[in-house]
Please model this.
Amino acid sequence: MAIALERRNQVVAEYRVHATDSGSPEVQIALLTEQITELAGHLKTHKKDNHSRRGLVLKVSRRNRLLKYLAGTDRDRYLGLIGRLGLRK
Model:
């Protein structure tokens, strides 16, 4: 369930902090959100795919840890990111 390379590059370009950024928390969280959305759509069709469901749970947990880290280090960046991604309504 990997996202397409062109979509990944778009997400990285949209959420990066500086020109050569590919590993900041913002980029990692945005990529995980994209993967979570794709997996959730897959699981709506394939309800009994428990292996993918486990992967989804792991990705959501990893995203939550990164969000918690970002909230603790820089609250403004955290609030801006969740607003852009539409998380935590």
